Amino acid sequence: LPDWYSPETRIYSSTYSSISLPTDPFLDVVSFIFSHQHDGVTALIDSSSGYSISYSKLLPLVQSMASGLHHLGVSQGDVVLLLLPNSVYFPIIFFSVLYLGAIVTTMNPLSNMMEVKKQIVDCGVRFVFTLLENVDKLQKLGVHAIGVPENMDLDSEKTGFLSFRKLIGGQFGKAPRPVIRQQDTAAIMYSSGTTGVSKGVLFVRFEASQYEYSSSKNVYLAVLPMFHIYGLSLFVVGLLSLGSSIVIMRRFDASELVKVIDDYGVTHFPVVPPILTTLTMRAKHVCENSLQSLKQVSCGAAPLSRKTILDFVQALPHVDFVQGYGMTESTAVGTRGFNNEKHHNYSSIGLLAPNMQAKVVYWNSDSSLPPGFHGELWLRGPAIMQRYINNVEATNMTIDKDGWLRTGDIVCFDEDGYLYLSDRLKEIIKYKGYQIAPADLEAVLISHPEILDAAVTSAADEVCGEIPVAFVVRRHGCTLTKGAVIDFVANQVAPYKKVRRVVFTESIPKSAAGKILRKELKSFISSRL
Ligand code: 4UU
Fold it and tell me: Ligand 1 centroid vs 26 CA: distance in angstroms?
């Protein structure tokens, strides 16, 4: 048997050598990341304007922003919401908040104001960075809103509460550096986990140290959003500590993709399945010296079909294709892609990440299974979240007393340590890699006066992976239409979350304990729709 699996404990360990984590209890993320020198290297580049920030300018900008925030009244322990699309400013704002010992929370900038308000209340947000056009709406919610100009032109700014340009301008002296411990809260990200509504996931010492210290001179293309754990932990925390250059596309524009890769000599491109499909399509129509700089494309956040993978490797045979797996509750740490051997057919989600342990647990038991068997993946290691905020019950259901995190994913290890993901036990819907919590949509649905009961599940979709489908029980004799149900939800949630199909039904199938039987809804969908 291999040395990465113990038949006695039935615990898997990583096939990668472990990374030694900083032991100083007072080392915070900012000091850790900026202790590595990458002079002369470009850190961040805006793909449309070419505006760039070098590594040597990064820390001074973070410090200026931190002193601006301090001037505004941000202090240790305050929660600051980043309601922002990607830009070269995103990492600077992120680190300036942590620099002050304050806490970052993030959200999709397309979120509905009702969703924003919910999160503001849930984690006690006091300050928000948002696009200029949202500043007024946010002020009305009782938080201090700082407007960030989307086109990066700092002079175009209207005078907001306090302008971004002034804040970052370095006119407020030195920001204080409070005592920050590794155990202090760094970030609160939102995830619904294995069940229920979206919850705040609390991270301490935000796991920067999961990345090796070696420097890498790669050029990454950042299209994936930094407000989601995949983009945040990869682009903001991971790659900036390694010294890579990051080309940031503020908005994903398929028609610009090839040009951006060629213009900036992009070597590495992390994607989610729909972007992989777009890249494949574009690659079929380019001239032969296009896309030659690309060395590796890595895909994660949602399942990929074999056909999608094979189409890609046929279109771009010189590119190394890998899959990675992670989740919010594990700071995006899970597997690391390493699929060079063709006989794995690229279908593996990678090898267990360094410092991580795993168990493959037989359904509804605590007995774990050896390589070759499918079961629920449990993960343990330093990157696992501390807890869900304001929710002891959900925390206890998700992490056991020995520190094992239930992922809600069904996996199997093969004899070489490669992981394969075959199914998902948990309720979440993955729309283009984004999480949608059925319980969040159900809460909106049953708030409608003519809806007696509702349940949400997913249907497979070729382009988006999965789409939310609502089963709705209407009040007797009412005339509510499917379109009206879709509109009702769409008015209260971010566009990507909206219900895309409605099924009217007489009752929602439930267990004796009142739990929605989602499997029954799913089989209804696959048989009828
Ligand atoms: C099938 O989506 C993420 C994190 C993605 C990620 C992280 C590190 C991708 C690559 C990487 O290297 O986080 P969440 O919390 O939004 O969603 C987590 C869930 C997982 O539990 C699993 O069900 O997303 C699904 N998922 C995947 N499914 C994540 N990666 C994959 C994958 N294939 N490769």
Answer: 31
Distance, CA of 328 to CA of 427 (rounded, Å): 15
Q: Please, are residues 198 and 437 in contact by the beta-carbon 8 Å criterion? A: yes
What is the best residue among 108, 203, 230, 331 to mutate for testing ligand 1's pocket, by most ligand atoms within 8 Å of CB?
230
> pLDDT digits over 392-442, tens only?
999 999 999 999 999 999 999 999 999 999 999 999 999 999 999 999 999
Q: Three-class SS string for 382-423?
A: CCCCCEECCCHHHHHHHECCCCCEEEEEEEEECCCCEEEEEE
Q: Which residues, judged by CB distance below 6 Å to any ligand atom, belong to the binding site of ligand 1?
A: 191, 229-230, 300-303, 323-328, 332, 349, 407-409, 421, 424, 430, 433, 435
Give the CA count within 13 Å in the CB-facing half-sphere of 458.
22
488: phi then psi, degrees, rounded to nearest 5 = -60, -45
Q: Would you state the structure tokens that stand for residue 214, as one six-digit string?
A: 């070696």
**ipTM (interface pTM):** 0.99
435 Cα nearest atom in ligand 1: 16
Token pair belonging to 359: 């168990």
| Cβ contact 185:202 at 8 Å | yes
Calpha distance 499→501 (Å, rounded): 6
Give residue 357 CA to ligand 1 midpoint distance, Å.
17
pTM of the model: 0.95
Ligand 1, closest atom to CA 272?
9
Contact (Cβ atoms closer than 8 angstroms) between residue 399 and residue 378: no
Phi-psi region for residue 384, left (φ > 0), alpha (ψ -120 to 50) or beta?
beta
